[in-house]
């Protein structure tokens, strides 16, 4: 099943985000080998060049490294992955708080609502 | 590449010709059998059927020759044929050679069929046995035969090429190409008639002063003169054919616009 | 070295100008979308690349050669119309392609046919329109060509086939070959494209990378196309 993308942002950025998500969530565990560019491109139903760009970005960020003959691997640096995870979480929270503010709740009110909802579960 | 093109051309046409010619030969053989058995009614039916098949053979040969060119080059199939990595020349030759072969086969089969039906039991063998002893032919007679056969063949090629050229010329128009091809063909026939009449009147009115040397040659080498005349005729017919071929090639290469 | 270069390429039919002096090049390993409304010159351009038409002016070169026998060996073309005759079976077409194209991978073609459930022994004329299109696509993609020219490959097919076609294009990707997809169904094809060329009235109005366009305009190529051409809808 092809991955769905927003139409108004570059695809390679969205690909980068998706792969990053799989890394921080542990779907692609630390040190494991990533599928080849061709396999991933087929899965996502995107142009392999675009995917390559996303992976190169992740390489630059240090989350992924390439071994010339064997392919690409997720970094073993767990601290780095943790940091990326936290950064991602912070972005999600920022977005959430912005949305809550649009609805009319302050950050504290939003926090309280979270607690309330959590207890109900 | 030419061989491959011809292979497919034979496959495409053989599906129709092989059953047709086989049917004709079988009907002829059966008819002859009916004749020998003196059963009148089936014999008459057989002859009628054979006659219809003979007519069909000629008509179908002509139609298929036209249709193969038109369908394969000037309809959607052209998208496949003209993107093949082969020269336009080869494409034309493949069709031309195969069409010529089938025309000759048609003639041979029809002749054979008539021979089968019209001879009595013993005379069929006589035909094969009494054929001229080939080793007794003189050089001249042999050469004449070869020249006449060559002229016959080249004329046949010309005939087919003229059909191709007329269809190719219709590429100047976008619609009603079949009707226009037909019109061009008729126009071409008329043109050739006019040219022939003009040529004949020029020759008969001109005071041909043959120089002495040529007159002596004609007188002392009557056979040689005929050979030269035949060769000249062959050259002219071949030139006409080459012109048709070049015209067809030019149109297919530069004026093709498949829809 | 570019795989395709055209320079001031012009094609006129009588008084109509189908292509008006276009110039651009395409590098190997690119998937290019050739977009434009009907009559913008897309099909004319593709036919010029194939040698099915000759230019009125300017040049087009495939791998530095003018269209001819040598370029036809490395160009694989999928026309909009079906080009099958009515007497062949699917396997006959496979044999035909094997005979004339040395880069044809028959094993691959058979495998693709099998994955789509098409019997090689089937008479082509008995196949449905959609199945015929699939067979034509398989024949084209089973060649290891340097340039693939696909003219409206996904128009008129159901979504599942559309996905299969795009999947095949991705799977077939080769850094030494390029694909030109001429279509007006941009949204479906966009994720697969590297760059797009907009044609309007025989001229190029845009030639850009997909992601660069999205970055700059904050909209998809599909949306950009609709904006660019909406006045023509009248």
- Rounded to the nearest angstrom, the distance between the terminal CA atoms of chain A is 32 Å
Most extensive interface: B-C, 24 and 24 residues
CA gyration radius of chain B, whole angstroms: 23 Å
Low-confidence stretches of chain A: none
Tally of individual helices of chain A? 5
Silhouette of chain B: globular
Secondary-structure element sequence of chain B?
A: HHHHHHHHH
Quantity of strands of chain B, as a count: 0
**Multimerization state:** heterotrimer
Whole-Å distance between the termini of chain B? 27 Å
Structural class of chain A: mainly alpha
Helix-and-strand structural type of chain B:
mainly alpha
Biggest sheet layout of chain A: 2 strands, antiparallel
Search tags:
heterotrimer; A: 121 residues; mainly alpha; two-stranded antiparallel sheet; 5 helices; 62% helix; 7% strand; B: 259 residues; 9 helices; 0% strand
Short description:
By secondary structure, chain B is an all-alpha fold. Chain B has helices at 2-36, 40-74, 77-81, 88-118, 123-129, 139-169, 177-205, 212-220, 222-254.
What does this entry look like structurally?
- The complex is a heterotrimer of chains A (121), B (259) and C (234).
- By secondary structure, chain A is mainly alpha-helical.
- Chain A contains 5 helices and 2 strands.
- Chain A has a two-stranded antiparallel sheet.
- Chain B has 259 residues and is mostly helical.
- Chain B has 9 helices and no strands.
- In chain C, strand 8 and strand 9 form a beta hairpin.
- The radius of gyration of chain C is 18 Å and the shape is globular.
- Chain C is of the alpha/beta class.
- Chains B and C meet through helix 1 and helix 3 of B and helix 2 and helix 3 of C.
